[in-house]
Design goal:
Elements: H1 18-26, H2 28-31, H3 38-52
The chain binds zinc ion (ZN).
Length: 61
């Protein structure tokens, strides 16, 4: 009814859920204050997440 503004991914422009945008805003430091779809969130979270994997150090760094 009310035309809620659907958040969209800053990279691909695809509509994302409120949950996803909330997650990005909660981690705005990681996502540069922008919101991304779950697929593109991985690009930003992949690197820091790697560091937290036990025994799995990123081979890139
Ligand atoms: Zn996207």
């Amino acid at each position: 009814m009310s035309d809620q503004k659907q958040p969209t991914c800053a990279l691909c422009g695809q509509e994302i859920s409120e949950e996803e945008s909330d997650f990005c805003l909660a981690n705005s430091g990681r996502f540069n204050g922008q919101v991304f779809c779950s697929e593109h969130q991985k690009r930003f979270s992949a690197c820091p997440a790697m560091r937290w994997q036990p025994g799995g150090r990123g081979s890139m760094h």
